[in-house]
Protein: Site-specific recombinase XerD
Amino acid sequence: MPLMDLERITDGLSVTWAGYLRDWDRSLRSGNRPETTRYNYVLAAAQLARYLAEHAPDPEADAAAEDPAEVAKAHIEAFQAWMIETRSAATAVNKHKALQQLFKWLMLDEEEIDRSPMERVRLPKAPTKLVPVLEEEATTRLLEVCKGKDFLSLRDQAIIRLFCNTGARLAEVAHLRLEDVDLKTESVTLYGKGGKVRRVRMGARTARALSRYLRARAKRKGADLPNLWLADRGGQALNANGIKIRLKRLGQRAGLDHVHAHRWRHTYAHQWKRAGGDTGDLMLLLGWSSDAMPRHYGASAAAERAQESQVRMGIGDDV
Structure:
């Protein structure tokens, strides 16, 4: 099933809500928003609609459950509180940001409302969640569980090495096409957020893993597809959600918890900074436009780097 399944997401919503969400998704697609972003945005809006219809204590929420133009500030605040209670503050923050975009679109593009109900709704406070880096031993264990010469093993090895070696996002790796891989220069072209395109180099081991996978891929059903990654059966392309699920299963087999693509991205940033790499170069390689991102990624290992610097400098040792 594709990540973005509008029929499933809007199932059970009022005709008005479902219609708006279809139109909003079309607008997001025309703005070249990534599929993951569109999914998260539309899902948040659908969750608000379902909350208003099924869980809102306000007896006057019925109108808002039928039409997003009737949503008021109090409805949003109650929804956020419910999200914090049933999920987490971090989840509530993500929903808040998505709903800001929905009501901005309703106000500016559709001109269905004069003011956004998000205007005076406070962003929930959430503790900073530090994403731990993946130790090299963990990546080695993952590669061990998919060791082999069969198609699935060769594909999984290439995917894992590409994440580890480039720090690329899940969607960037998932959306690779055959033409994006250049084994002569040992590089791949990645299509990032906001339509940003960048070419990154890969190491010899990653290039070799990709070359072996491509030889196996050429013999498979679906070899004529432009997509780089093929599913194990059916001659279909392997999408981002498929890679996400596969990494989780490989992690379970390796005895590792919370294995996901973004942990390699944090690890890449940490190792780059630890090796004394330039922050500007890191931003170019990982497709960042804000210098706040290098501070966020690898933050869980920042204390370790600081302690290493402290020992190296030896301040106070010569007293």
